[in-house]
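WARN retry 2 of 3 for item q-0093 after timeout on previous attempt; input resubmitted unchanged.
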Amino acid sequence: MKSKLQTGLARLRSKFMEALPIILFFLFLFYSVILIFGISHVILVSVVTILFKINYRRYMTARQLMGLVGTQFLMAFLSFLATLNLPLCILLNLTVPFLLVFLQSSQFNQLGYYTGAMCFTFLQLRPVGWQGLAMQMAALAYGLAVMTAVLYFYSRRSRKGDDFALAEKGLLLLAAELQSAAGPVPEDGKKPADSLFPILQGLYKEAYKSRGLTKVVNARGRIQYMFALLFQRSVYFLTNPYQESTLADESCRGIILRLARYMETMGKEGFQQGGSKDDRNGYSKGYRDGLSSEAFSKQGKELLAEAAGREEAPYIFVRNFLGLLLLILEDLRRIDENVPSPVWKLPVYRRPVRRLFCHMRTDTFEARFALRLSVVLTAGFAYSMMSQANHGYWLALNAFLLLRPMYEDSASRMKSRFIGTMAGCLLLQLLLPIFHGTGWHFVLATVMAVGLYMETAGTWQQALFSTCFALTLTTMALPQTLAAELRFLYVVIAILMVLAANRFFFPTSLKSQFAYNLNQLLHIHQVYLRLLGRSLKMPLDYGVICDIQIHYHLVHDQIQEYLKKAGHEKEGFIREMLWISWYMVSEAEQMLYLINSRKISSMDNERMDDYLIFTACIISDIQKRLNMRTDHVPAAGESMAYRRTMEGEERLSRLMEQYSKQVSRLYLCVCRHPGAFI
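OK item q-0093 returned
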């Protein structure tokens, strides 16, 4: 019993210490806003605190901070306009949440809309009118100024070098895998992919996070992407049965072992700075003195020279690996010296405005959730404005908090919100008669705020503290029984409204997203084939290649995550298909690199076009057999020949042949499991 108590207290202390910066920030802002601007503006404290909670562990540049602040002011003004009259309320609640979701969220960043929508929603809860606008904006400016100052302080303390900790870990793992590549299979039966695959998938995710409105990745995201590409090619090399025989050669093993030792040194000492990792004292001038990068570059060039002139697969792998690694080291030096890196622009079809006006489809994650959120908020705020009901805004508030992109997440929150609200209302009925008076109300509010930010978002415990905090303040103006009844009533109505919206209005669930992702998987293969065809005529923008690579791996990862959580009756087949598909993408990427960078001496475009058309037709047939939406592909003519090699181009021919084998494997696999997945 004593041991359980000690464990519980230790866990509680750990949660408190983790949440302490957020708690202190909230309490300071809460009481200072009340003292300076009055309790009527306390609602914005929650908005600013959530912004702080989301961002305080991130490194943020001055530009990013300015963008965050500017967005909040824009949302605050739009929310003010929405409170002026019913037509503006309907118009703005239909358009603003829709645009926020459609332009800032995606299936890989589902809550990208949240901070902007939160400000827009919360500041509508207490209309201030024209006479109160200046005071509201001043209070918001004060809160954001405090947040910006604290975030700037945290950003200065952040260790930017940790951006590439995952890559360093990957280098060490890869070095170990290369060292054992020529040896026996490990006793535990683990494959290189088991340890390296999570690394490369994680790096693709990090690269995606750096996406901007016009850039597919920023400077740091570009490095993350290139590292992901390194590990992708490495996993392909280590797991491809074709390579096994080549590693039997002593000289091939030697060059691989030298590469492994080189990577091991980089991983242990840290390629980001001079000196040992133990000597890092934060990111400051001289954090990377440049000597380490130069030394690693010199060693890499020497090893690259050793690998020149041989065409065995290990030598080709070493050359490709080092060529990309040297580019990474060069980009790291550019960052340290504040020299602009090459810009990879986001493809036009991916840019928000273009997607909004030209590529909006109701089967996409963004459009479906954007429509659902807009309708729910419009209904909630329209009811509040038309009815003028006491605390009617609680309906829109709870609906916003309960509505999540995926049905499963919303369902979990509805359950926990109901339990937490009921428990909170009952608890306050017991506490308020004991702790009555304004002073005790603020004491209770402080205690509940501490509990609120200690608990995980979406749990019934957090809902309990949230309910207690809100009712503690509300009961200063309303009888406690009436306040509790209204709170519970509006939570129940919000649950019913969100439940209906999720069930009947453009529903999105993990299962439906899984089916959509499987369709996307084969569609992306068709996109790769079209890119290969375009690259025959002219070099492609690397932004296009980077975008499709990242998109594929994030879709692939979401499918894997779904299978882990929910399983599937055809799970074995799907996992086999995923592995074949991954090999196909790895080979397509390497073919695209050879053609796009003009690493080939000659090219028979007509033969290559025939190869691509035949392959596209086979993949289209696979799509049909799986009852998927097919891509439009040119029909294969009778005079065409499916030749899978290119004269004089051994590397390209090898990849073409391997890719064709994977397509055949996929076709046979699908023939054994025809029909739709869902």
